[in-house]
TrEMBL record, chain B:
This is GID complex catalytic subunit 2. A zinc finger (RING-Gid-type) spans 335-378. It comes from the Eukaryota. Residues 335-378 form the RING-Gid-type domain. GO terms for molecular function: ubiquitin protein ligase activity; zinc ion binding. PROSITE patterns: CTLH, ZF_RING_GID. One of its GO terms (biological process) is proteasome-mediated ubiquitin-dependent protein catabolic process. Keywords: Cytoplasm, Metal-binding, Zinc, Zinc-finger. Its main location: cytoplasm. It is found in: Cytoplasm. It holds the Pfam family CTLH. Belongs to the RMD5/GID2 family.
Length: 468, 396
């Protein structure tokens, strides 16, 4: 074990399961594409060969058979090109896996050599990866329309740091893009497309996502009064779900008739409406009983029967749809739902946080007549580099528990001054010497100055303490 | 020894994921080759057909050959495809599944308040500014600051602290140490000053200019080395001189490595001189998180089996052993009676015998100040009046 008490290599691998989960899934998906492509071409070739076969039987159709054979060669040629593209994909993924293994082998070497400097540097790149992951997941994206490649600050960071092989940013940004479209632009298209491409996985899991997304599409059509399209949507997409979600579908159908009344007759006395609303909720607990938001809450509900349509029109549905999507997306690739960076920060803060954190000593300082002394003490003595006390980190530590300590961790030679402050006696003496040397104070040989309240004591006043 | 990494590396990455590791040939690669071979075969048969198409017998042979090679091709494609997917499945089962022993999400019990996340953004800004300002695109400071702002939204005020450092590092990496040497002189940093000159001498020798190197040592390093207190520095210089004498050189990679050491030393010194934190707070927190993770997952595993719950609400139920440089920021006093950390509400008190207890335990021992009590550590008797509130102060 080295001086950092860092976990072993295998533990690090487990912490970074997503670095291997994603490529493993990608390999399988790439294989699926490869296989599908081959199968479809194989069927086509089967047909072509059959025609060629009959053509060859007829000696008069010499030219035609040569032509057919040419066609076949062309088909095979195209197949080869398309397959080798997928094969290149495969090699890229495999290379990533190899680079990642190399990354952890590096760590293994540093750990084996107990090389703390190198280990710290390695952990810095590890931190950078977590930051990159966070930025890619949440950054706002810009799309390069020429190459159709989305980018954001996270990807920029990955590229400047040369971390491309250690993080599957393409996957993360796909989730980010779909989710941003949902939340920011209320655009369902990318989500529906994704659902279609991954329907096998979703049905296997028995996910509600597809139904909820289609339902939302229908609701939006109703909202913009395109009833024809809404009915078409209901018939083609939603009707299959009649057995699984009968209640929701009844509501959805009802909304078509009552949507206008939901919006128009809302204004008379709000309070009683709200009471009715709650009453209705308890009678029919089909959705989460949260207050209706924004537009809908003010004007929906004239009578209690209508208010049950409220949740369908609620804009919070977008939020929950987004959450549902992210859950499905991340579970598909076995990526953690919460941002890894936040998880590490939460654990890190809790491991570090002492009861003293956030209580700055500078507030207790009593100023000295010489401002230089104050300045020196402020920046050199009481200033702590404690990461939890850092002004950006401390607010994050708000709800997090403190570290648990079983032993006191103090300092050598504790002595108490008459004012009750306990210091390391040697450090206190050397501090006073330094202040004298710099000409800030004129202390006598056996005198020290308490840096907090600036009172001066003789070293003979020191009381040796026995804290346990 | 790490078993997972070894399996991943030896058994899979270096063999089983490939048909031939040295050529980086995979099963799918084999498929592509088979398609190619098939195409060539078809072309050959086409040539035959063109040449001998008129003879019915030959036509028959060609027909059969075509059918046969199509059939063979199809079956070998299927075979390769099957072994490809089964390799992946085995890989996933043997290598990837064991990594999923626990879920990262499962230890995320104490959540960070989402309303405070904009503070995290600033922490990220500071992190990037501290370590990577020198990678910002641009030739002038202004361009670099603009780049950092437009790419990461890092405000000028944060990046400003590091821009001088970044410029010096940039110069150092481009082979010009002069600004850094001047900076060292201004700040009286003898050791780094020496290291930089030494680096210059090294690079002269690696460029195969022994005479220049010798003269450089004479003018720039000799005076420092001759000081008797700097024996430590004499050793590398004498090694360099010896290399000159025997006509040896230094590989460029060594010079680069030493340059990085110097950059690291310089940034450290720069932060010290300018009262900037040595490491970004975010980095230290994440590092503590990695170290703590092992205990959290262990606790989570035990909790699952034994149905114990996360006991104390505001304190972790276990101790995380952090390295000294991460655990010495604040003095921690654990009351020896209550075994609790002292706080503002429950501060430490000194007894007349100079043992220290927390206020709560003092109240308990003295029955709220109504009676005398014996110090739990020595025979001295005490009363509450005789105790004195103390505070522990850590000096750097």
């Amino acid at each position: 074990m080295t001086s950092l008490n860092e976990p072993n290599v295998d533990f690090h691998l487990k912490l970074n399961q997503q670095q291997f989960n994603i490529p493993s899934e990608l390999l399988k998906r790439n294989w699926d594409k490869f296989n599908n492509l081959y199968t479809s071409y194989s069927v086509e070739l089967q047909g072509q060969f059959a025609t060629l076969n009959t053509l060859l039987e007829d000696p008069n159709k010499d030219e035609q058979s040569i032509e057919k054979l040419n066609d076949i060669i062309n088909t095979v040629n195209i197949l080869q090109k398309r397959l080798s593209q997928l094969h290149d994909n495969e090699l890229t993924i495999l290379e990533r896996i190899e680079k990642r293994v190399e990354y952890f082998k590096q760590f293994e070497r540093f750990k084996y050599d107990s090389n703390t400097d190198k280990l710290l540097k390695w952990y810095r790149s590890y931190t950078d990866l977590l930051i990159a992951d966070y930025l890619v997941r949440h950054g706002s994206n810009s799309i390069d329309h020429k190459n159709k490649i989305a980018s954001n600050s996270g990807i920029e960071f990955i590229k400047t740091r040369g971390l491309e092989d250690l993080i599957d940013y393409e996957v993360l940004i796909e989730a980010n893009q779909i989710s941003m479209e949902l939340i920011e632009n209320k655009n369902l298209r990318p989500l529906l497309e994704w659902i279609e491409n991954n329907s096998a996985h979703l049905t296997e899991k028995g996910s509600h996502l597809q139904f909820q997304a289609l339902l939302q599409e229908y609701i939006e059509l109703v909202r913009c009064s395109d009833y024809k399209a809404a009915i078409r949507c209901f018939q083609t997409h939603l009707a299959h779900f009649a057995n699984i979600y009968p209640k929701e579908l009844k509501l959805a159908a009802g909304i078509l008739a009552f949507f206008k009344s939901c919006l128009n007759n809302g204004r008379d006395d709000e309070v009683t409406n709200e009471q009715k609303l709650f009453h209705a909720y308890f009678r029919k607990q089909m959705y989460r009983p949260h207050p209706l938001s924004s537009i809908s809450s003010s004007n929906v509900v004239h009578n209690a029967e209508l208010c049950r349509y409220g949740p369908l029109l609620d804009h919070e549905r977008w939020e929950s749809l987004n959450k549902m999507f992210l859950h499905e997306f991340y579970s598909l690739y076995k990526i953690s739902y919460h941002d890894p960076l936040l998880i590490y920060i939460s654990l890190g803060i809790s491991s570090l946080k002492t009861k003293d954190c956030g209580h700055t000593i500078s507030a207790q300082l009593i100023p000295h007549e010489n401002p230089e002394v104050n300045e020196y003490i402020k920046s050199n003595v009481v200033n702590t580099d404690c990461p939890v006390c850092n002004h950006d980190i401390f607010p994050l530590s708000e709800n997090l528990p403190f570290a648990h300590h079983i032993q006191s961790s103090l300092f050598e030679n504790p002595v108490m001054l008459p004012n009750g402050n306990i210091y390391d006696s040697e450090k206190l003496i050397s501090l006073s010497r330094k202040l004298n040397k710099m000409g800030y104070t004129k202390l006598k040989e056996n005198q020290v100055m308490d840096p907090i309240d600036k009172s001066i004591y003789a070293t003979t006043d020191f009381i040796k303490m026995y804290p346990t | 020894m790490s078993t997972l990494l070894e399996t991943l590396d030896q058994q899979w990455v270096n063999s089983r994921l490939y048909v031939d590791k040295d050529e980086r040939r995979t099963q799918l690669g084999k498929c592509v080759e088979e398609v190619h071979d098939f195409k060539i075969q078809l072309k050959k048969l086409k040539a035959h057909l063109l040449k001998h198409g008129s003879s019915p017998q030959k036509r028959l042979v060609i027909r059969e050959k075509l059918a046969k090679s199509h059939k063979n091709w199809d079956s070998s494609m299927k075979k390769s495809l099957n072994s490809s997917i089964s390799t992946y499945r085995k890989f996933s089962k043997a290598c990837v599944k064991p990594l999923n022993e626990f879920q990262l999400d499962s230890v995320y019990v104490n959540k960070i308040n989402p309303q405070k996340l904009y503070y995290l953004d600033t922490a990220i800004f500071s992190h990037i500014a501290r370590y990577y300002t020198n990678m910002a695109v641009g030739t002038t400071s202004d361009e670099m600051l603009k780049y950092l702002h437009s790419t990461y939204r890092i405000p000028r005020s944060i990046a400003m602290d590091y821009i001088e450092m970044a410029n010096i590092v940039k110069e150092m990496r481009s082979g010009n140490l002069n600004t850094c040497i001047r900076w060292c002189q201004d700040n009286n940093l003898e050791v780094l000053h020496f290291q930089l000159h030494y680096l210059n001498a090294m690079s002269l020798l690696s460029e195969n200019k022994p005479m220049e190197c010798y003269l450089y040592i004479q003018t720039n390093l000799a005076s420092t080395v001759s000081k008797s207190s700097q024996l430590r520095m004499a050793r590398p210089v004498s090694a360099l001189l010896a290399k000159i004498v025997i006509g040896d050189t230094i590989p460029a990679s060594k010079v680069d490595a030493y340059l990085e050491t110097c950059v690291e030393c310089f940034t450290k010194q720069y932060c010290l001189q300018n009262k900037l934190p040595l490491h970004s707070a975010l980095f230290l927190v994440v590092l503590s998180g990695v170290i703590g993770f092992q205990v959290f997952t262990k606790y989570e595993a035990i909790r699952k089996v034994s149905h114990v719950d996360w006991s104390t609400a505001d304190e972790l139920p276990f101790h995380v052993k952090l390295p000294p440089f991460l655990s010495n920021y604040h003095p921690i006093f654990i009351c020896p009676v209550l075994k609790e950390e002292t706080t503002k509400e429950n501060p430490p008190y000194s007894l007349p015998c100079h043992h220290v207890l927390s206020k709560k335990s003092l109240d308990k021992l003295s029955k709220n100040g109504t009676c005398n009590f014996k110090c739990p550590y020595c025979p001295v008797m005490s009363t509450k009046v005789k105790t004195k509130r103390v505070s522990f102060m850590k000096l750097p």
